[in-house]
Amino acid sequence: MKNKRSVFRVDGSPYIGMGHVMRCLALAQGFFENRIEPVFVMRDMENNSCSLAESCGFHVEMIPDDCSKEEDAEKTLEIARDFGASVIVTDLGYLINASPEVYCKYHDILKKNGHYIVALDVICETEVSADLVVNPYILDENSPIFSFDSDRYLTGPDYFILRDEFRILSVNKRVIRKEAGNILVSFGGSDLRDTTGMIVNALAHADISGLKAEVVVGSGYPVTNIEKLKKIIKLFPDRFELFHDSSNMAEQILKADIAILGGGLTKYEAAALGTPSVIITQFEPEIKPNEDFISAGTAEYIGHIDMINENDIIIEIKNLVEDYPRRVEMSKKGRKLVDGKGIERILSKIPKEVFS
């Protein structure tokens, strides 16, 4: 029987974050469980995340970081041909922020050889040359994406790619405690704005009884910032615990009464586990997606980091800690929003004959 293979084209680094890689690893595992062998293609960036894919048992091919986007697409096609892959999955949303035109041209090149293309995370006002375009987010009803071909564009949290560790825990009954004190703080793998530091400073002086915060930082979090955190935590050892590259993120989110998060995918994972969250935007492109997410009622939005102060954080957290009915409502809405079946829904949309 002919081997079924797929190529995953994705990048991860402290600058662009690791969320895209984690999402592709989850989808790749779904492919693998359906006897479709994934091969990862990644740029050789500084502090890249190729070891993450390799640690999951997937083969990785590297592309030089100094090649042009056109060369990148051609090399990806070459690797797909060499491995006999019929499907190419891309998760390169950071290219859209740089240039929607370059992003669209990149996919035009991939499509020219007849491969089946699945593009993830495409908040772009121009239609993309892909057979499936997956936007697993809450989008404003006026988004131009809703005017595109609905058979190709899979939009909304029904298609959110939930990692196994979250999916398994999401089926458990969620109990919301009346006395809330467990806080999770997480701003992705790098947190270049050091929002974590701002929040820790705020929580250190918050008048919240029984507060215990688990602070999670990733591999890209600057060493200098870690040292600053450690100095604060040393002053408040009963209030904070620091975790570097947590291996139990799902369990930590489930344990938390409230999660303080950024603009990445973690807010959807928290919703799936029924954990109310408070969102702070770090970068301009995250403002609209965060505002759209808040409309689902599973999180509160404080604002952009440049427009808020530590007192704003304290007030929001204190209000939510004291509002038990609100947290119960947020939890129910979150679990309803993300049901953990996104991977199987995406796979069901790929015609079986693609792999024949």
Classify the helix fraction into a percent range.
25-40%
* CATH class call of the largest domain: Alpha Beta
* Percentage beta strand: 15-25%
Order of strands across the biggest sheet? 3-2-1-4-5-6-7
Q: How would a crystallographer describe the biggest sheet?
A: 7 strands, parallel
User: In angstroms, what is the radius of gyration?
Assistant: 20 Å
Give the CATH topology of the largest domain. Answer: Rossmann fold
Backbone structural class = alpha/beta
Architecture (CATH level 2) name of the largest domain: 3-Layer(aba) Sandwich
Number of domains: 2
CATH superfamily of the largest domain: Glycogen Phosphorylase B
Write structural notes for this entry.
This protein has helices at residues 19-33, 50-55, 69-82, 93-98, 100-111, 164-170, 195-204, 223-235, 249-255, 266-272, 287-294, 310-322, 324-337, 342-349; strands spanning 4-10, 36-43, 59-63, 87-91, 116-120, 132-135, 153-155, 182-186, 212-217, 240-244, 258-261, 277-281, 299-304. It has 356 residues and is an alpha/beta fold. It folds into 2 domains: 4-162 and 340-355, 3-Layer(aba) Sandwich (Rossmann fold); 169-337, Glycogen Phosphorylase B (Rossmann fold, 3-Layer(aba) Sandwich). The longest helix is centred in the N-terminal third of the chain and has 15 residues, at 19-33. It is globular, with a radius of gyration of 20 Å. 44% of the residues are buried.
